[in-house]
Amino acid sequence: METASSFDEQDEFVAVAHIDELAPGSMKRFVVSDRALVLANIDGSFHAFEDRCLHWGVKLSNGCLEGNAVRCRAHGWKHDVVRGEIVASEPSGDEGRPVRTFKVIIRDRTVFVGGSIASPKANAAR
Asked: Which domains does the chain have, with CATH numbers?
């Protein structure tokens, strides 16, 4: 686990990784201001989200990345980190619930994550 420097809630960005640290199809857990996050490389596009399943709070970083979704190891809930929502739950009924995502920018081959939570349906600045 890596610890990045602090960020505030004013869209300040924090460097969390170099793009070469994360191959396509992989994820990395890190902590910013006591908040556990995950950075995923999905086909060369980086996405950051809270490291917490919406079902039982299990670490998503221990789950499995399947396309755009992270499948929780506990009960198989799928969190689509591109769309920012649950796409499969057991029992069903929680599909469409928003997943906490964060803005991501890349500058000089470094991945930065924004301090404010991005809108689950509008993950701009990718």
From this structure: 2-118 (2.102.10.10)
